[in-house]
Every structure is written in C-alpha cells, then in structure tokens.
Design brief:
Blueprint: H1 23-26, H2 30-43, E1 48-50, E2 60-66, E3 74-88, E4 91-95, E5 105-109, E6 112-118, E7 124-129, H3 131-144, H4 158-169
Antiparallel strand pairs: 1-2, 2-3, 3-6, 4-5, 6-7
This protein binds cobalt (II) ion.
Length: about 170
C-alpha cells in the first residue's frame, strides 16, 4: 500500500478523455489500487480521486463521503466506466479539487444525478444521488472526461482564476 503522488493542474493527463476499461483486465490489481487511492485521498482530506489524478488512463474513480458529522467514518464508492444518465435541478456551491489545492470556486451542478457504472466487483449498478455524493459524482466523472471544475466557473471570473492559479502553482510540488 502506498500514498500516490497526485497530478497537479497543468499536467496534460488531466485533460485526457479516458477510455472505458475491460473489468477483467484490472480485476487482479484492483483491490490494491483502490486501497492506494483511498489512502491517497484520505491523506489530503479529499472527497474523491479520479484515475488520471494518479496518472492512470482509464475510467475509474473513488469517492469518500463522510458518514457522521465529524467525518471520521467514510463510505467508499467505486465507479468504473461511469456515465451520467439523468440529471435534475441545479445547485450552486463552492468546489475544490486535489489537483488544484487552495483553489475554491462557486459553480453550478445538477442537484440530483443518476449514474450507471460498474462497482468494484465488476457488477453493473445505478446510483441515484443528491447532496455531496451527487456533487462528487459529477466532479469525478468530469475528470474522466478531461474536465476540471473551474471549467464551469462564470466566464467573468476566469481571468482572476488564471491569475490565482499561477500564484498557487508555485506552492505545489
Ligand atoms: Co478533482
């Protein structure tokens, strides 16, 4: 088990649209990989991590949602080859990303989503989500499509975001 290095904004792998994966091809290495992704995400108090954020190029993400108020216990969701099949409503909230530490921007997301994916056992599942899980699903699936949350920011804010990112990038390793 190991904490992986998280790819930072500016790396081209974060702009790649990732391909679906044949579950059988990753099945053997999946338990160890998921443990690494979970540990990596927890080490920086994240709510989710997509495969390209640790340099992998297929559609897989891990989401960790606090189960209690203190956030000590977390429920893990694994999504492989996920697709959003339905959305409903709209909600504006502040969002951040482990690949852009220190950057937080208010963006619009669907309030509810229905996602079809394979789970960690390779079974087809449908997740209907609201709240933090809905937000995390949209954020992580965006990553798998080569999108980053700031893409959704108000265009008027983009010059300021660019300036702040330049400053922040100096603090990343
Ligand atoms: Co992110």
């Amino acid at each position: 088990m190991a904490i992986r290095k998280i790819v930072k904004y500016g790396d081209p792998v974060l702009r790649k649209k990732l391909k679906p994966v044949d579950f059988k091809k990753i099945e053997a290495e999946l338990p160890a990989l998921l443990k690494d992704m979970e540990e990596t995400c927890l080490s920086v108090n994240g709510a989710g991590l997509a495969a390209n954020q640790i340099g992998l190029d297929y559609r897989l993400a891990v989401i960790l949602i606090p189960e209690d108020e203190k956030g000590e216990k977390k429920k893990r969701f694994v999504i492989i080859n996920p697709e959003i099949i339905e959305t409903e409503g709209m909600i504006t909230d502040e969002e951040g990303c482990l690949s852009l530490p220190g950057m937080f921007v208010e963006i619009d997301r669907a309030e509810k989503v229905k996602v079809r994916a394979l789970n960690e056992r390779g079974l087809a599942v449908e997740l209907c989500a609201t709240g933090l899980l809905a937000k995390a699903l949209q954020h992580e699936i965006d990553h798998l499509d080569g999108k980053i949350f700031i893409d959704h920011a108000d265009p008027r804010l983009k010059p300021q975001i660019k300036k702040e990112l330049k400053k922040l990038a100096k603090t990343w390793n």
